[in-house]
Each structure stands twice: as structure tokens, then as C-alpha cells.
Amino acid sequence: MKTDKNTVIGFALLGILFIAYFAITNKEQKTFEASQKHVQDSIALIQKAHVKPIDAAAVKLDSLRADSIAKTSAAGGFVAAATGTAQTQVVENDLMKITFSNKGGQIQKIELKQYKSFDSSLVILGGAHNELGYAINTSNQSTQNTSNLYFTALPVIKNADGSQTVTYQLKGENGQTVENQFIIKKDDYMVDWNINLNGAQQLLSQNTLNLQWSNSLHRQQYAVKYEKEQSYLAYNYVQKGYDDNRAARGANQNFEHPIHWMAFKQQFFNMTLLSKAPIKSGTASMALASNKDIDDNSFTDKNIFNDTASLQIEAPATAAISIPLQLYYGPNDYYVLKKYDNEMQNMVDLGSGIDAFAKYVNRWFIMPVFNFIAGFVSNFGWVIILLTIFIRLVTSPLTYKSYYSSAKMKVLKPEIDALKEKYGKDQQGFAMEQMKLFREAGANPLSGCMPMLLQIPIFLALYRFFNSNIALRGHGFLWAKDLSAYDSIIHFGTHIPLLGDHLSLFTITYSVTSMFTSMYNMNMNPSAGGQNAAMMKYMPYFMPFIFFFVFNGLPCALTLYYTVSNLVTLGIQLIIQKYILDHSKILAQINEKRKQPKQQSKFQMRMQEMQEQQKKMQDLRKKK
Per the database record, which ranges form the Membrane insertase YidC N-terminal domain (predicted)? Predict the structure, then answer.
């Protein structure tokens, strides 16, 4: 037992010694590490003092050298065009000023001489981000896009017909040539673009020209939010004809079938690429330039959409080829686009979708009358007023028929009131007797609605017309600075849901005059009673209130038209009611009608049978 005790004590002492050793060793280790760190920090400071600072310019130069080497390598047999200095030249015609760049041998931007942007500068299409080129094989192992190569500009040629020819050329080491030839006509927004290739079988893969187009749509309108909503992709299929992609916050389109042309379209302008040989396939996209909501006051960016397109055109399988293309940089003017006879005029939205019929009303009726009036009246505000008066006069026979039906209902109102009092809560009995009264008097409560329904096509046509008519752009009237945009009298400085950031005065005048017109119509067309009577009395206030929010952000030309239309309608109503309609004569005609033998149509007979059956069931339920 003694030995075991001594053994335990020994192990305990050894344990204490080990613990003490490790504690002392750990402390010394930390002290050593701290001293070593101090030494290393000192050495680092000394080394830092002797190291030369990084030369940013040298780094940039090295990067440029590396980029130049990469470009030279990609340029292959066109190494002379791999590097250079971008140089521009400007060519003008009567309508536009075109800036060309030797980098890519392409159009850089277009300035439209007859149109100004929201900031009073000329409308610019294209710009610094505009690149339109195509891929060429520069060697057996490398491919380069012409947008990255520096072309040689040949002298501008002025042709006998007043057009001008601008040519940019690339020459390869193996005798291959690439040429971009542009023909600018004297009085035209369309530019002919001919791609001439010598050695095309080596320059193109699988006899296909792969076009790459990237650009930006710039803000042109004061009402930028509405301009964004009216911007979209448009294209023309070889088989199906015109189509478009109107995604509200951008668009992506895959062209699975051949197309004749595709366009980046905004509210009043477009950039379109056209090919005489069908574009066999491709993709295109429009993406909002900003992720934030576009508000008229807070949105200050110049660009509203960033656009890209990748298009494939089949080329002839010969050594020397010419691929004829065209570029349109110009306004969405119906008559300008129509002369090209390729359905581009459909980009002017005069009616589409559910109201596609409206475009025919516009093309065959509204637009000819508008242009005729504008031929001798210079102020477009007065043109709209005269157009309104003309349309109201043309539709006045329908208006008269509607008011004549209302006058009949007014004459019959005492008898209708007597029926209400007689039948009380018996709605079924009242309805049967009321229909009998209408039949005997030759009155139809719905006949007053039909003439108004026939005017809906004109209503919708004018809605489309004033939203897309570029002729109104930049022209003011009274307090409105631009009839193609809203007339702002108050800016709130913030976005209010449903209303926006402003208040339009013409929208207010429309809503007020619309309310008075509806109230007058209700007074002249007394309700026949029933469950809808209580609801109908609120309609004069409900509809103008709803349309107030709808129209507040729309072009004020539209609300000016509706305001004048309401005033003219009120005037026509007063004239018809006071000077044309004679209620005593109408009553005499009704009494004469009552004396005549009545013949019921099959529809009336069925209605009467249904009402009688419902009356019997109602009486049976009461007895039970």
C-alpha cells in the first residue's frame, strides 16, 4: 500500500511539473511570436519605403498594349484596320444630318432637322452607343466584327439626282475587300446600305451574314412615362405580315420565321433595318435603361431603352457579292411610312387588337377631314375644335334620334309614375304593364341608347388618332405647350398613385363638362324606375371621375376634343329640346299610335309569355 501511495504522489508531481512547463513554454512562445511580428513589421516598413509606387499610367499602357495585341490577333488578314483613330464626317440632306464614323464604317447618329426633343435640341437617333456591324472571318482561326475595325473613308460622291454616296472600305492582305456603301437621297429618311464583299466565301461562314445591332432609344418627349409605354419592337413577317411585341417593361423577340424588316419603335420615331432578301432568323430585345420607375419629373436619364438585335441573312454562294439593305431613321408619320409600301405605316397605331376597326375609321374618315381642315387653319388647337364640330354635326341625326326617344319617355313619365304607384312593390306586374305601355305608344327605352352605341367606333378612333398623330407634336394651344403631351398646370413633385405627378387642366374641363352633359341627359331621359334607378342617378358623377384618372396622363389634344365635344353636345341638346322637339306633337303621335292595330314580333311575344309565366309563379309563391 505504501508503494502505491508513493507512486500516486509521484505521478501527481510529474503532472504539476508538466502543467507548469507548458504554461511557461506557452508564455515564452507568445513573447517570441510578438517579437517576431515586431521584427517582420519593421522589415515590411523598410521594404515598403524602398518599393517604387505603382505607375497607373504604365498599367493602363500595358492594358492598352494587351488589348492592341488581342485586336491585332483577331484582325488576322485585316491587321492594318485593327487599330486607328475614330474620325467622323457629316453628310446632310433636306431632312436630316447624318454623322458617319470610320470605326465600323457605319452611321453613328442621325439628327432630324424638322423635329425637336423635349429639351429644345434636335431629335437624335442613334448616338455614341449605336453600333451596327457584321462578323467576318479575318483568318482561318479568327473572326472579328466590323464595328471594331477602322475603315478607310472614300471621297463623298454627289450624284446627278441630288443623292450622295458615302463609302467606307477595308482591304485584306489576301486581296479580300469589305465595303459599306451608303446612299443618302435628297428628300428622304431612308438610307440605302449596300454591303459589298470580295472573297465572300472566305469572309462569311456558311454563306450567312450575321448582323449585330446595338443602340439606345433616347428620351424625346416631355411625358417620358407615356413615351416609354408607347415604345416597342415592331417587325414584318414574310408570310404573316406586320406584328409587334409590346411588353410594358421591355421586350424580347425570337424571329422563328423570315422577316422583311424589324424596328426599335418609340412614340413618335423609329429606327428600322430593312433587307431586300428576307432576314431568315434572329433575335431582338429592348431593355429599360433604368430599373427605377420612370416618372416625368424624377427621371433625368437621356436613355429610356437599350436595344440589341442579332439577325442572319442568307448570302449568295459566290466570291463577289452585294447585299442590299436599308436603314430608316425618322418619324412615325403615317403618310411618310406608307409611301414605302412595306407595312411600316402600321407602327402608327391608329387601331389594333380589340379595336382594330378603328384604324379604318381613322384612315378613311378622321385623317382626311383633319388634313383638309389643317390645310387652311394653321393652329392645330383650332383644327381640333373645327374637327369636333364637324363630327358632332355629322352624328347629329343619331343624336336627334336618341333625344326623340328620350322625349317620348318624358311624355310617358306620368303614366309610368301612375303604374309605379298602382303596383307598388310588385315589380313583375309593373314590368309587364310598362312593356305593354311602351308597345302601345310605339316607344322603346333602348332606342335612345343605340345611336350612342353607334358613335363608339368614332370615340375609339379619335382616342387612337390623337395618341399617335405626330403632326400635333410641339404645337401648343391656350395654356397647353404641346398638344401631343399632357397639359400640366400643377406639378406635385412626387408620384401619386393613379394620378401621377401632375394635374392636367384639359382633363378637368373634360370631367366637368362630361358631368354636366350626363346630368342633363338624365333630366331629359327620366328613369323608368325599378332596381337600377338608384344606381343610375350616380352615373353622371361616377364615369367622369373614373375617366379623370385615365385621361390625366394622356395627350391634351384628346381631352381638348372631348371638352369641346361635350360643349357642342350640350348646345345641340338645347337646340333640339327647345326648338325642334314639340312634346305636344309627340304626345299626339303616341295617341295616334295607340289607335292603330298592334302586331307583335316573335321576340315580343316570347318576352310577353316569359313575363306572364314569371307573374304566375310570383302569384303562386304569394298564395303559398
Answer: 90-351
Name the residue among 64, 67, 47 with its Cα closest to residue 56. Answer: 64
CA 482/CA 467 separation, integer angstroms = 12
Report residue 273 as a C-alpha cell: 433595318
Contact between 101 and 152 (Cβ < 8 Å): no
Q: How far apart are CA 452 and CA 66, in angstroms?
A: 74
Mean pLDDT of 375-396: 89
Grid cell listed for 321: 457579292
Write the pLDDT tens digit of every residue in 72-120: 556 657 777 788 888 999 999 999 999 999 998 999 999 999 998 888 8
DSSP 8-state secondary structure symbol assigned to residue 239: T
Give yes or no for a contact between 348 and 467, defined as CB atoms under 8 angstroms apart: no
Q: Could you please report the per-residue DSSP string of 428-497?
A: HHHHHHHHHHHHHHT--TTTTTHHHHHTHHHHHHHHHHHHH-GGGTT--BTTBS-TTS--EEEEEEEEET
Using the CB atoms, write b or e for 273-303: b if 16+ within 10 Å: bbbeebbbbbebbbebbeeeebebbebeeeb
Residues with Cβ within 8 Å of residue 471, at least 6 apart in sequence: 333, 374, 380
The x, y and z cell numbers of residue 613, run together, are: 309565366
Which residue ranges form the domains of the chain, and what is each CATH number? Answer: 70-348 (2.70.98.90), 359-606 (no CATH)
Q: Is it the case that residue 46 has pLDDT exceeding 80?
A: no
- DSSP-based three-state secondary structure for 293: coil
What DSSP string describes 118-185?
TTSSEEEEE-TT-EEEEEEE-SSS-EEEGGGSBPEEPPPEE-TTS-EEEEEEEE-TTS-EEEEEEEE-
pLDDT at position 64 over 50: no
